[in-house]
Amino acid sequence: MADIRVENLGFSYGDKRIFEDIDLHVEKKQFVGLIGPNGCGKSTLLKNVYRLYHPEMGDIRIDGKDVNSIKHKAFAKKMAVVFQEGNHQFDFSVKEIVTMGRFAHKKLMENESKNDHRIVSGAIERVGLSGFEDRCFLSLSGGEKQRVLIARALAQQSEIIVLDEPTNHLDIKYQLQVMEIIKSLNITTFTAVHDFNIAAQYCDYIYVMKDGQIHSAGTPEKTLTEAMFNEVFGVKSLIQNNPCTKKLHVSFFL
Amino acid sequence: MKFKSEFKSRSSFILLCTLLLCVLLFSLIASISLGAVGIDLTDVWKIVMSKTTGIEYTEQSWSRATENIVWNLRMPRTLLGVLAGAGFALAGLMMQALTKNPLANPYILGISSGATTGAVIVIVLGGVQILGIDSVSMGAFFGALFTSLVVFFLAGRGGSMSSTRLVLIGVSISALFSSITNFIIFTAQDQTKVRTALFWMTGGLSGGRFDKLLAPAIGVIICFVFIIVFSRGLNSLLLGEDVAKTLGVNTKRLKNTMLILSSVLTGFLVSNTGIIGFVGLIIPHVARSIVGPGHKRVAILSVLLGPILVIWADVFARLVSRPEEIPIGIITSFLGAPFFIWLIQKNTYGFGGHNG
How far is B192 from B98, CA to CA, in rounded Å? Predict the structure, then answer.
């Protein structure tokens, strides 16, 4: 298992500084959430972590290794990413898309083995899409598509999974299901979370971002406070205990 | 609810390919026998067999003139058709993966207009033979290569080369070179040169000679092998460059290689055939509508379908107003456009796949 360590990270878009001096640590097998209002830089931060953007200063290390020094396939074996994918117009079947998750494990001309097929079917089953293997990806609903992408990340069998707003389009049942699936993988997880109750329920540790800086960090109990919601999100809140989940429950008002 | 097409299973795909291979072989022989001078199919077969395998037929039912037409004129012409069909289709396939745009074709990066400008400049200035290669072809080849490199350079400036940027710059450069070409043609004094230029712009296989086939053949083979070997990476590239990156694909290297390969291939082809429209756009789509978007199968199908289309288009071009020959590009566009519209209209086919 691998850990992620971000030190002194800074990134700008042209002249616009998105964030700077970011330090954070995702420990092995920890489930870490990143929350913050729109535009605070959390998605950009994640994109630095999964290498779509190149950091301007500071560094990001996985197991002590600078992420940008790792080869493409080796990196994909370390880290799988689920993010909002732009609409593409080329249609693949569900099985074909999930099989693409095996790319990093295959040599150039190597065919998929029985083992690959087993992993792919297992991943599809795990997100509750058994029977959808031959369906066309473009014909699926938003939630089903999202689950296919999660299945693909599972098929990647990486040591870390990074989720960039993974459950935005999902019905509440599937939001919870996806979180349960990822939690049950018991691997290092770093995820942007929109819903604070979900964050409270699943995260071991939470980083709160505001205006390109880490505002606060800690366990859900420590970070999800009325003071924080007021300062960072500008709303009043009521924080209670959910007797069913034994976790925090947050409700908001102005 | 839509499922994938019927040709999903391996055996039915192999059957389809075998069938198409037979059609292609038949088209080859038929194309050699048809023309201003009709030649018996069996004679064509015997001449080709004796030339390729060295079998001597004791009773030769054909004249030397016939043999000359079959082997030295129509055979290389037909083979050039095969290479053009396969090559334009593969170049189109690569361009579509590169730009993630189903409408991309070998000409999207201004390659056609660059080639045309190069060729037309040479035609109007007066062509000469340099080292046995005629200078019009050279002009076209370097025109094609030059424009694609310019587009590549401009699109890559200031950070990452996005597909949209690539297409937009390609379209602009294309317009620029078209206007240069038109200017040259309109101001040209010599009417025969104008006619030559116009003929070149609509393409044709009449330049096919054995000694000119090597470069396009090597280009087609390299591109085909490249697509087959890197099919997995290309498939994930269709989902978006970001996605491909996170799956472990070295997208930068893959895209650069593909850009260079498809530009050089198009340059080789265009310098021999002129602009043959629509093949590079339509063939990958037809292939996808049959076997889905996976690159391995689409590439295999494309190198079978492309040649069939071009060979028959050339047969029409030779026969429609014989003994005059009309440019093949007119035929491919005339047949290709309605077929493509029909393909899009079919409700089972959205760009590159099946809509729900």
Answer: 39
Contacts of B350 in chain A (CB under 8 A): 89, 91, 138
Domain extent listing, chain A: 4-219
**The CATH number of the domain covering residues in B6-345:** 1.10.3470.10
pTM: 0.88
Instruction: Give the amino acid at B287.
Output: A
- Residues A4-219: name the CATH superfamily: P-loop containing nucleotide triphosphate hydrolases (3.40.50.300)
Whether the CB-CB separation of B203 and B274 falls below 8 Å is answered with yes
The structural domains of chain B, with segments of one domain joined by +, span: 6-345
**Alpha-carbon torsion angle A172, A173, A178, A180, nearest 10:** 110
Q: What is the pLDDT along chain B (356 residues), one digit of tens a residue?
A: 344 445 567 889 999 999 999 999 999 999 988 877 778 888 888 888 888 877 777 677 778 888 888 888 889 999 999 999 999 999 999 988 888 877 778 777 788 788 888 888 888 877 655 555 667 778 888 888 888 888 878 887 765 667 778 888 888 998 999 899 888 888 888 888 887 787 777 778 887 788 889 889 999 999 999 999 999 999 999 898 899 999 999 998 998 899 889 888 988 888 888 888 789 988 998 898 888 889 999 999 999 999 999 999 999 888 888 778 888 888 888 887 887 788 777 645 554 444 33
Pick from B247, B288, B352: CB nearest A76: B247
Q: Are B41 and B52 in contact (CB under 8 A)?
A: no
For B238, the closest of A51, A88, A104 (CB atoms) is A88
- Taking an 8 Å cut-off on Cβ atoms, the answer to whether A91 and B353 are in contact is yes
